Amino acid sequence: MKKMLLTACLAALFSMTAFADDQPGLKADKAPPPPHKMDDGYRGMEDARTMTIQQAKALHDGASVSLRGNLVEREGKDVYLFRDKTDQIQLDIPMAVFDGKSISPDELVGVTGSLDKKQQPVRVRVTHFQKQ
């Protein structure tokens, strides 16, 4: 009886890892919505300081920005293309910021970080990432 209980516990323990995501980050299996169809709507996150990419690009180097939109594609190791209704911008998102979350291009996300105008093209160095 003890062996059967031990075997069942071990099987349950090892089967849980099968349900975990293999690779966190952007899953490019779905297409993002077209820019004219990107509506915020209520998604459970209230942030009065959210701005558009066009507004963010007009700010000074090092400015704190908070954006909502879609991760469209991965362009490098930690570099992603981000798009909202007004424009697109590159984001620098380390894997640690994803915190094990997987995102597809059709999901609305919120990002917070600092604007880096020294990079060409302009980038946002993301410090906080939230699925909407």
Automatic annotation (TrEMBL):
Record keywords: Signal
Domain of life where this protein originates: Bacteria
Keyword set includes Signal: yes
Higher taxonomy: Bacteria, Pseudomonadati, Pseudomonadota, Gammaproteobacteria, Enterobacterales
Cell membrane listed as a keyword: no
Signal sequence annotation: 1-20
Name of protein: TIGR00156 family protein
PANTHER family membership: PERIPLASMIC PROTEIN, PROTEIN YGIW
A Pfam family recorded for this sequence: BOF
